[in-house]
Batch of 2 targets.
Target 1
Amino acid sequence: MSEIQFHNTLSGRTEPFVPLVPSAVSIYTCGPTVYDFAHIGNFRTFVFQDVLRRYLKSRGFRVVQVMNLTDVDDRIIQKSAAAGVSIRDYTDKYIQAFLDDRRALNLEPPEHLARATEHIEDMVALIQRLTAKGFTYTSEGSTYFRISKFPAYGKLSKIDVAGMQAGARVDMDRYDKDNVRDFALWKAPKPGEHFWETAIGPGRPGWHIECSAMAMKYLGETLDIHSGGVDLTFPHHENEIAESEGATGKPFVRYWLHAEHLLVDHEKMSKSVGNFATLRELFSHGQKPSSVRFLLASVPYRRQLNFTPESLQGAAGSVDRLRTFVARLATGKFPAGASPAMAARAAKAREEFDESLSDDLNTAQALAAIFDLVRDVNIAIDRGEFLEGDAAPVMGVLESFDAIFAVLLDDDAEKLRALGFGKDSAGPSDAEIDALVAERQAARKRRDFAASDRIRDQLAAQGILLEDSRDGGVRWKRK
RNA sequence: GGCGCGGUCGCCAAGUGGUAAGGCAAAGGUCUGCAAAACCUUUAUCGGCGGUUCGAUCCCGCCCCGCGCCUCCA
């Protein structure tokens, strides 16, 4: 097994990954702000985080992942007020949608999904700790973090604080802060706004404090991995470091992993630009969950990912090829025996697959190892050289692949139905299809091709594709 | 301006100091009753200019272009 390496934003380098505690990895992943449906740019990062945790698990680590759900912020306060519902009710809806979307993309549930509003006490305690150490000041009921008290500020994003201070013009009237870079830990309530009555006064938490508080609550004061989109590097993650390390005096995170953006028309997909697509929109246009997951997972996470209709179709084609291959392996009839050469070929693919992923999760390269194997096995099958006993080792590789990519199981239609898309009915049942297939086989046997083709067309119209195999069998799949 | 990421076949996208993976798409072919699937063949000298080197797409310099962060943002 190759040594695992990750690119650490903190050092700016790709370095060997060694968790603090052998055999276990603690991961904090920045989750969504639940004021609306997440778009696929957001899911690019979430898919990356899922690939990350799955890979670590495949390498034998016990993974403990915490993902936050930011369920209080300016937008949520505004929108829920506008809708005339409580923050809780407003965010419940989008949290549910988020969880449904995650299921559609086969994202494994994190060990802890932490709602900000359920951790107010933890945040207050952390702020008190910071205050006790002199890192804070208050202004008009709000509490701020004074970055001049934290000399390491800027070490993650490589921002030159001194330069910024010199060039910054502080608008005191507007911010009431000593330094523009100082950030709110606790915000005083505006009239009519929802607030929490706490030991540090009424108000609501600033953005960054929730992540520090929840990460340390579940994972300890030093965690192995923290990840999110590149846009969070500054100020969000920089501020998390300041808050956390200010309070504990210990390193907060050992490896910072940042996912690059998903681009549309050479531009970052974002709500503000308006060039975003939600999963539901794609599904309503007939796209499959597996295509989306494959596309998002296939581009290494530190690369910007160009999202185009063509790339999504490409992903669909790739998934199709792999599923067809698995079906061929599972249903084919092969000569008895087993060949050492094929076992070795499979082992080689397994090794290349792992080695690619160990190199900062190079999923593109890992896929090449799988497709190379697929081609070689198909060649062997076509030549009649593939033996019965060769299927198991090859399937083993595909299982390793799917433990990470999770696209082989053909349950797209089911998932779409669960989200209210696609056909209302499941279409013909397996038994009905099998009966028609048998009928067609009989027609073929008496060389009544008109009848057999009629049945094939009829099934095709219902999205069932038939493949006659050389050994006389028939394989079918739902499109 | 500062910091960071890129520019490789029609599209997506790996990679290496010694003439470039993989997927999708396209064309032709083999197989098939016909299809489908599968396989085979065909399609790139790696943004530009210099430099280092026996040799650079990969190293260095300059330039051009795109994207992101520096304000809410995955």
Note: The first strand of chain A starts at residue 5 and ends at 8.
Target 2
Amino acid sequence: MPIQKQLPVLDQECCAPLVRQPLGTGEAAELARVLKALADPVRLRLLSLIGAHEGGEACVCELTGVFDLTAPTISHHLKVLREAGLIDAERRGTWVYYWVVPVTLNRLAGLFVPDLAASSSR
Amino acid sequence: MPIQKQLPVLDQECCAPLVRQPLGTGEAAELARVLKALADPVRLRLLSLIGAHEGGEACVCELTGVFDLTAPTISHHLKVLREAGLIDAERRGTWVYYWVVPVTLNRLAGLFVPDLAASSSR
DNA sequence: ATACAGCTTAGATATCTGTCAAATTAGAGT
DNA sequence: ACTCTAATTTGACAGATATCTAAGCTGTAT
């Protein structure tokens, strides 16, 4: 009975969970909220810059220069990412530091990849 | 030299690629385009319904009833998903059938999970 | 042919969103 | 106290978006 054993394995490893089981209304609303925060070129790059930055965090002053945008605009995008739970921030003296919240990113990952149960940090 | 061997492994398996290396401007723009298509509760559910439907495809007539929206609105959302390359469609007689394009979904998956090189179908 | 059902397109509208300039807050260092 | 720098908030505005109604298109069946 090799077939019976093969199917369950495929069931776990194949295909994005998103397209394996219909998403509920509530789930969809919540996920859309987070995806919407991510679905912007500037915010994608901001998140990426913050996450990839040395120490896993970045000061706003290190982010503004990268873009051809004013400080208020960057601040706005950071706020959107923050309210979506994708990043968090803390003021330390003169500067404000931002870092990525792994849990929220992993929730999105769970849409595309099965079995990501307890992913590691960062 | 166990450390030298361990680091490269972590480098491959840990953390979303998105937050490991800064995203380029072009990449970010392209990804944002696809994410924006996905970042809507109705479209998330549509994609999920289509993908999870028997045979991997669904007729529009099977989708409209699920939502409290008019047919033109559903049609609009399907068009957005289609133009993002997330789904494709074909008319067969009276009905139009939609199915998920795995390649595009996998490109998104690659943001969150490393090493997803050649993922399987659907 | 005519009518009907499935689906899309076109046009209209209210809401949301990205951006900037100006004003505001918060801390550091004279 | 004052000033300078870092960052956010506010207000305004142009452009995008989600939704609807009405109209159009494309097959099937009578």
Note: Confidence is low (pLDDT under 50) at residues 118-122 of chain A.
